[in-house]
Amino acid sequence: GGNEEGNGINQLNCPWGLYVDDEQTAYVADESNHRIIEWKSGATNGRIVAGGKENVANRLNRPEDVIVDKERNSLIISDFGNKRVVRWPRQNDTNGEIIISNIYCVVAGGNGEGNRLDQLSNPYYLFVDRNHSVYASDNTNHRVTKWEEGAKQGIVVAGGQGYGNELTQLNGPLGIVVDQLGTVYVADRSNHRIMRWPKGSTQGTVIVGGNGPGAQSNQLSYPYGLSFDRHGSLYVADQCNHRIQKFDIE
C-alpha cells in the first residue's frame, strides 16, 4: 500500500487485520475493497487471493481479519459483513468454504456490556496463547484483559485507567499480539501508537508512533491489526494511511 486509498493492486482501502507467514509474505484484510490481498516481501504490488469480485458465490463483505492454516495451505477469514468465518485456498479458487456460521460460544464476557472484570465493551480483537488463555482488546473500556481457560472474569494486562495518552492508558485499543513471555503488544488506535506492556507491568512503553496522526515514517494514523514475522519484525495495518508498515523492534 502507501499509494493512497483505492482498489488497484498497489493500493489498500482501510486495511484491518493482517498475518505474516514464515516467508515474510503479508496477507491483508483489505476491508473496504472486500478482499484479501497477498504482498510478498519487497513487492510493489499485491495479489488478490480471496474475494474482490462481485459474484455472489465468492464475494467477501468487509473482511476484518485473516490467518494462514499451514496444514491445509488455506486462509481462514473473518468475513464480518456476512457474519461468518470462511476457509479459502491460497490459490484463490472461485469458492470459499463456510466453516463457522451463526455460532455463539462464550469464552470471555457474556454478562452484558460494562466495565466489571466479568464484562467487556466492544471487544474487537483476540489473541489466544499456548495455554488457551484469551486476550481481548476491550475497546471502549480502553484496556486489554486476559481470560485464562475456564475463568469467570478477566485480568487487566494493559490500560484500564480510562482513556488518555499517558503511559498507563490506552485510547480505543485494537490489534493485540502476546509473546511467549506474556508481553502484550497493542495497537493504541486513537493515540496513533503501538505500545508494549511487559507481564505484570502497570504502564507500557511506546515502541512505534506516538507522534500524532500523520503519514511520515515515524507516524501512524489509526493503527488496527498487528503481526510479527519469524525474525521479530512488527507489521502494522496503518488504516487511515491505507498501508502496512514494517518496524524492526528492539
Structural commentary:
The protein is mainly beta. It has 2 domains: 4-100, Thrombin, subunit H, CATH 2.40.10; 123-248, 6 Propeller (Neuraminidase), CATH 2.120.10.30. The protein is built from no helices and 19 strands. The mean pLDDT is 91.
Question: Summed up, what is this model?
Answer:
By secondary structure, this protein is an all-beta fold. Helices cover 0% and strands 42% of the residues. The chain has strands at 15-20, 26-30, 35-39, 47-51, 63-69, 74-79, 84-89, 97-101, 123-128, 134-138, 143-147, 155-159, 173-178, 184-188, 193-197, 205-209, 223-228, 233-238, 243-248.
Which features characterize this protein?
250 residues, four-stranded antiparallel beta sheet, mainly beta, Thrombin, subunit H, 42% strand, 2 domains, Neuraminidase
Low-confidence segments: none
> Termini, distance in Å?
25 Å
Shape designation: globular
Q: In angstroms, what is the radius of gyration?
A: 17 Å
Work out the count of structural domains: 2
The biggest sheet amounts to: 4 strands, antiparallel
Q: Topology, please?
A:
Elements: E1 15-20, E2 26-30, E3 35-39, E4 47-51, E5 63-69, E6 74-79, E7 84-89, E8 97-101, E9 123-128, E10 134-138, E11 143-147, E12 155-159, E13 173-178, E14 184-188, E15 193-197, E16 205-209, E17 223-228, E18 233-238, E19 243-248
Antiparallel strand pairs: 1-2, 2-3, 3-4, 5-6, 6-7, 7-8, 9-10, 10-11, 11-12, 13-14, 14-15, 15-16, 17-18, 18-19
